[in-house]
Specification:
This protein is an alpha+beta fold and 172 residues long. The protein has four helices and twelve strands.
Length: 172
């Protein structure tokens, strides 16, 4: 009997080897810590570094083959004064400032609010996230709202995404 989770782990491990060997571009992953009040003072939001990941579309992959569902992303810029354009613009400014405060380099891409995907057959069979099992087949949803029938095979998905990172299109 095939163990689908062992197959997933093997595919992820192979992807790590290829990406690492090729020196493919990786990105930071962090945990966002909201502003906190303590003893009458407010500590500003900060992003705490967790490591490095390769962005594979809806999946993030660490060097130890831990896989995440992509969460949010920001690019580090030096904080600027609030200009109150819109709530969403101010929220994005706040995330960029938190990444800067976390010590990430100017211009660095930082992933946050990413969720670890537990590689457990029972959980993957009932998952509504990007990686799931149908029978013994590992599949990837391009978006949470996509029907299962639109999902693609994990092996093909990883092959395409790894290839794009190893051999990026001209100008990328």
């Amino acid at each position: 009997m095939n163990d689908p989770v062992a197959g997933i782990r093997e595919m992820l491990s192979r992807a790590v080897v290829v990406l690492d060997h090729a020196g493919a571009r990786d990105e930071a992953i962090a945990r966002f810590v909201s502003p906190r009040r303590r003893l009458g003072f407010t500590r500003p939001a900060v992003m705490l570094p967790l490591g490095r990941v390769w962005r594979l579309g809806v999946l993030l992959l660490e060097r130890d083959a831990t896989v995440y569902a992509t969460g949010s992303i920001t690019r580090v810029t030096e904080p600027v004064r609030p200009n109150y354009q819109s709530l969403s613009a101010e929220q994005r400014r706040g995330y960029r400032a938190a990444a800067f405060k976390g010590g990430f380099a100017q211009g660095e891409t930082v992933n946050f609010d990413a969720t670890v995907i537990e590689l457990d057959a029972t959980q993957l069979r009932s998952s509504r996230g990007p990686l799931f099992l149908r029978g013994d087949s590992a599949l990837v949803r391009w978006s949470r709202s996509a029907p299962d029938d639109d999902a693609t095979d994990l092996e093909s998905y990883l092959s395409d995404r790894v290839s794009l990172l190893v051999n990026p299109p001209e100008g990328a």
